[in-house]
Specification:
Layout: E1 9-10, E2 19-25, E3 28-35, H1 38-53, E4 62-69, H2 73-91, E5 93-103, E6 106-115, H3 118-121, E7 129-130, E8 136-139, E9 145-152
Antiparallel strand pairs: 1-2, 2-3, 3-9, 4-6, 5-6, 7-9, 8-9
């Protein structure tokens, strides 16, 4: 399935200190989340991931717990996003709310969502996996954290 992604797609409704964006990368899609903490940046990156699939509102009726551990925070981001992609695929769900707690390189997370409805959600594509391409998790000089990578679609 072909996917058209605008030059940059952002979450314009987010508060100034948090948000997300998508950017084109060859045949894939890059995403980046940012916020006042690493946890918020990971949550915003997850919202950007959902934004690859649909622009529709997602009911947050079912909670799914996930846990990840990696050697460093950048690989933890890849594991987090891949855990979401896995849950989307095996449960046929989309998620519209995320909660992350990071301790060192361990992540405890929660995803809230609903089953995919082809009519309501009009899914554009199915993400295959988070990659190491453009992988970066860092705190900027402004104090905001950013977390992003390229998603194989």
């Amino acid at each position: 399935m072909a996917l058209f992604v605008p030059a940059v797609k952002t979450n314009a409704e987010a508060p100034i200190d948090r948000g997300w964006e998508q950017f084109p990368h060859d045949a894939d899609v890059g995403l980046r989340g940012w916020g006042p903490s690493i946890e918020v940046a990971f949550e915003q990156a997850a919202l950007a991931l959902t934004g690859i699939v649909t622009d529709a509102e997602i009911a947050v009726e079912t909670r799914i717990a996930v846990a990840c551990e990696a050697p460093d925070v950048e690989l933890l981001l890849v594991d987090w996003l891949n855990a979401i992609i896995y849950e989307m695929a095996v449960r046929s769900m989309l998620f519209g709310r995320f909660e992350v707690k990071i301790t060192g390189t361990r992540l405890q997370g929660a995803l809230w969502g609903e089953p995919i409805d082809q009519v309501k959600h009009l899914p554009a594509c199915e993400p295959k996996g988070a990659t190491y391409t453009a992988l970066r998790v860092a705190q900027g000089s402004d104090g905001l954290w950013s977390a992003g990578c390229v998603i194989d679609v």
